[in-house]
Amino acid sequence: MRLILVGPPGAGKGTQATRLVEKYTIPQLSTGDMLRAAVAAQTPIGIKAKAVMDAGGLVSDEIVVGIIRDRISEEDATTGFILDGFPRTIAQAEALDEMLTAGGLKLNAVLELRVDQTKLVDRIIKRAEDAKSSGQPVRKDDDPDVFKQRLEAYNRDTAVVVPYYEKTGHLSVIDGMQSIDEVSASIESVLEGLDEKV
To answer: Lower Cβ count inside 10 Å, N or C end of the chain?
Structure first.
């Protein structure tokens, strides 16, 4: 099962990916997690990515594509994977197509978690306020200005992959404003309808 989760920051992709990992025993390949690991390890890619991420920007296609290429060739990803946060651009989507085709692989589905973005911003503002009032530090990602920048970047850059995958027939839209369990049930109904042959 090879899946892509698409949706703006805060849409619940990470939560749903965790459930899919348990159900299908395939790894979740989160570019965010992989980049954070590179930052923590202070690799050359990590150092380059840190400055961009701290500013609320998106790292270059070259860096991300290289990380993904290496990761999908690892043993635990041979039976499938869930991509979360990739592809973010048409160039990345095309690079992924080339990678999969070269390996004789195909995507099963692209799941878009569609949400009300105004409510997402409100949720982040509330989370930041709650952290401040309890005396805890506000995560960089929870800073409303940084979050709005990430949302703008998503709408400007990443949202374009939705029509790309709609054209290929891989896209399924999921109402991300439902409860977590309802979103999971909607995803399951899409996946159960897929042809399991890859």
So the answer is: C
